[in-house]
Design goal:
alpha/beta, Rossmann fold, nine-stranded mixed sheet, 9 helices
Length: 277
């Protein structure tokens, strides 16, 4: 029999000390999923790729944060350098954007890892379900490298149907295989429907990756860069987007991110748990 004194101690220990703690006990842990998208300066279709991915995930009711840390991205706002949440711009009910050129390196540690950048992003945008990190291959290795092998992470590579775009894509795959644990990737080829080079580009990249780097091009798909953004994603594209999400890096929200969700003026998620959990 538990004494009345011990019962009082137990009830005191289990009673929430504040509103946030009480809500943590009521709601399941929220998890963000991070997808690395390899920038390609020569392809000129990075915006199209990110837009199509956002459309695919939005059609499933998921909120996507696009973190653009590519070399052609806008520099971050001054406030975002101190608090990433200050730089998050809502573009629609399901898409947010963060100009992040140079921001990953502000989170580098003594080992050259920028993995803490992901935790900072989770704290900055706890309302999101998916984070697309668009950056060069070298930056993605610094950001995801320490955790990539644990999560079966698969980056998305893209190119156009030109030799320059193909060369840039191959260089990115080579860097990721040599400096990171990534030996598999998915590919998007941005080309018009009448292009007779898209298939050859995908085949050549896959062959060279396999023969010289020991890497696997798991899946590839051609997308039309001139297709209106209002068009629904094709079933094949939805399949590729779902595959990327299945292999995305999961990261549970920390207490600071949850506190932001329940702070005055913030809205809790409308569902008891994210669709992905």
């Amino acid at each position: 029999m538990i004494s009345s004194h011990r019962q009082a101690e137990f009830l005191a220990a289990s009673r929430p000390v504040d509103q946030a703690q009480g809500l943590r006990q009521m709601f399941p842990t929220r998890v963000l999923r991070f997808v690395p998208v390899v920038a390609n300066l020569k392809a000129g279709c990075g915006g199209v790729v990110l837009e199509r991915l956002c459309a695919a995930y939005s059609s499933c009711g998921l909120h996507t944060l696009v973190v653009d840390a590519g070399e052609l991205a806008r520099p971050p706002s001054e406030l975002a350098e101190f608090d990433l949440s200050e730089g998050v711009e809502p573009l629609s009910s399901h898409v947010s954007y963060l100009a992040a050129r140079g921001l990953p390196l502000r989170h580098v540690d003594a080992r050259g890892s920028c993995a803490s950048f992901l935790h900072a992003l989770a704290d900055a945008a706890p309302q999101c379900d998916i984070v697309l990190v668009h950056a060069s291959a070298s930056e993605l290795v610094r950001v995801f490298g320490p955790q990539a092998s644990q999560a079966n992470l698969r980056p998305l590579v893209f190119t156009n149907d030109t030799p320059e775009g193909l060369t840039q894509a191959y260089a990115a795959v080579k860097l990721m295989t040599q400096r990171g644990p990534w030996l598999a990737y998915d590919l998007l080829v941005c080309a018009l429907p009448q292009s007779d080079k898209a298939d050859a580009v995908a085949e050549r990249l896959g062959h060279c990756a396999d023969s010289f780097l020991g890497a696997v091009q798991r899946d590839w798909l051609r997308i039309n860069p001139h297709e209106p953004s209002s068009h629904d994603p094709s079933p094949r594209f939805m399949e590729l987007a779902a595959g990327l999400l299945k292999c995305a890096l999961p990261l549970a929200l920390g207490d600071s991110a949850f506190d932001q969700l329940v702070s005055p003026g913030a809205a809790l998620p409308s569902r008891m748990a994210p669709v992905l959990n």
